[in-house]
Amino acid sequence: MWVMALQCTVCSVELDSAKALDFSGVGKLCGSCFVDRAGTPKKIKKEDLDRLKREVEGETAGLLPQETLLQIIEEGYDRLVKESGSFDDEVTRMAIEVQRLSGLAVAKKVMEVLGALGKLVEEQEEEVRRVLRKLGRMGG
Predict the structure, then answer these.
(1) pLDDT confidence of residue 40
(2) 29 phi and psi, to 5 degrees?
């Protein structure tokens, strides 16, 4: 089966699907072209801002709070704008931070599940004891 290589729509460099940034209306971009096209912020219409906000909320709902993810992205963007870090370093730093926070969030969820299972086991043990007491009274 023949598979077409993924390319940046601006500079045509070959992209790894994990590193490609996909933007509607623009297509797939490499990190360098993304930074070049970001440039200075443009005035965004309110309806576009609302749509983008809904998209971000939908994509970030789940394991990590939206505010946390937005803070990580904003800090990385600020460092890039101030030219105090390279794009690759910032992406790596953000990925590590998201992985770290995700690990903590998963651990918290596992502890909650274990706690709920512990309560269920205690309830089942109490039910078994009750049945055994009842059977003991019936037999003796």
Answers:
(1) 54
(2) -125, 145
Kind plus residue range of the DSSP H or E element containing 51 = helix 46-60
Size (the chain), residues: 140
Phi, psi of 21 (to 5 degrees): -105, 120
Give the type of residue at 17: S
pTM equals 0.43
Q: Is 17 exposed, middle or buried (0-12, 13-18, 19+ CB in 10 A)?
A: exposed
Report whether 68 contacts 57 (CB < 8 A).
Answer: no
State pLDDT tens for residues 18-63.
666 776 667 777 777 777 776 655 676 778 777 877 776 665 566 7
Domain positions in the chain are 1-40
Query: Measured between alpha carbons, how far is residue 68 from residues 5, 75, 98 in Å?
Result: 34, 11, 9
For 88-123, how does the pLDDT look when each residue is reduced to its tens digit (9 = 90+)? 888 888 889 888 888 888 888 888 888 888 888 888
Instruction: Give the closest residue to 35 by CA, choosing from 75, 69, 77.
Output: 77
- Residue 66 contacts residue 57 (beta carbons within 8 Å): yes
